Amino acid sequence: MSTSTRQPRVVVVGAGFGGLRAIQALKNAPVQIIVVDRRNHHTFQPLLYQVATASLSPADIAKPIRSILRGQDNVRAVLMTEALSVDPTEQILHTDAGPIPYDYLVLATGARHSYFGRDDWEPYAPGLKTLEDALEIRRRVLSAFEEAERTEDDTERDRLLTFVVIGGGPTGVELAGALGEISRYTLAREFDRIDPTWARIFLFEAAPRILPSFPESLARKATTYLNQVGVQVRTDTFVTEVDDAGVVAGDRRFEAATVLWAAGVAASGIGKTMDVELDRAGRILVQPDLSIATYPNIFVVGDLAVLDGPDGKPYPGVAQVAMQQGRLAGANIRRRTAGQPAQAFHYQDKGNLATIGRNRAIADIRGFRLAGFGAWLVWLWIHIFFLIGFQNRLRVAFQWAWSYFRFDRGARLITSTGYDRTKEIV
């Protein structure tokens, strides 16, 4: 790349929802954009659980970053490399491929799993943030049924057919509901020696109820839907131990071959490489215009940013917040380069949705509450609409239509993700 241009260089770290919207907001702006991401694809994270539970294939919810940005001329480079640290004084982003100088920096690195100080649980209870996570969960879930089919030990069979999901937020609820649907419908007639409907699925939540971001009436409805597909919901239940054979929850031990983590997230670690104010989750405190107070040419969006809303509570770490913040960060860089003042972030809450298997969903859209088949149709339309790329939308719509009428899941392949989490234990 030529270094003789006088156009400001904007480096965007992370091509998730926030990073992509920032880049697209700078289309045709007189800047040169460098995109940095450790992966070569954008993932539609709200549908990761569908890959994890064999409804969709990875390619259905992911698209190469280069392909998405192909028509944006001011994107000068897309670098598949990992951001290591930021030197805000010298205005340099350090990566494992070398230093990258910037005039403006957009940090949209997202979040990772948080085990609340018990990182030793991670090999036994994978979370769900990436395609690799989804494939590992899919492997564990499907392998549990296969191993249960061939074992002669009744106790071991019960353990293999017990699934535990820790965390009652939207991800945990959707995972648990999909597991219930797999065992009750998809696999119900595919085995000779076992009946998949024997599977026991537990959803543990430490709070008094699941889905705290939803109205209580919808949370109760979601609990009913989970019960209908065989999920046992346990609230006010703390998990105090996780190992390779199961969990301790409340005052009981549950022997389970498959434990899945949906209980907490923490910001990526890049904020800790700068002398900036962080909250307890490692998120960077930002100004109303999404810049850092001491470094106004650095913008932070999505799960890495913390900014209080009008109610005094931080904006939630959801996709719609990241997208709106990304658009504003890009627009504010455009304003800065034109000598105009930046604007403050104003969130437009478009509602919350969660699905609990086939025909079951809840929706809270600007005070309008909906549950059941109607909410499921709304969820279906919104998720297809926001998928990146027309081809992906068409493929997902066809796959969901096929699954709906056939009670089938077409991605039930057991594949290795290329790593063994148990080997990470020291």
List keywords for this structure.
10 helices; FAD/NAD(P)-binding domain; 25 strands; four-stranded parallel sheet; single chain; alpha/beta; elongated; 426 residues; 2 domains
Description of the structure:
By secondary structure, the protein is α/β, with parallel strands linked by helices. The protein has 2 domains: 9-113 and 265-337, FAD/NAD(P)-binding domain (3-Layer(bba) Sandwich); 118-263, FAD/NAD(P)-binding domain, CATH 3.50.50. Helices cover 29% and strands 24% of the residues. It contains 10 helices and 25 strands. The strands form 8 sheets. It has a 6-stranded mixed sheet with strand order 5-2-1-9-21-20, with helices on one face. Strands 13-12-11-17 form a 4-stranded parallel sheet. A hairpin with a 2-residue loop joins strand 14 and strand 15. Helix 1 (17-25) packs parallel to helix 8 and helix 4 runs antiparallel to helix 5. It is elongated and about 70 Å long. The two termini are 43 Å apart. Mean pLDDT is 91; it is low at 417-426.
Short description:
With 426 residues, the protein is of the alpha/beta class. It is 29% helix and 24% strand. The strands form eight sheets. Strands 5-2-1-9-21-20 form a six-stranded mixed sheet, covered by helices on one side. A four-stranded parallel sheet has the order 13-12-11-17.
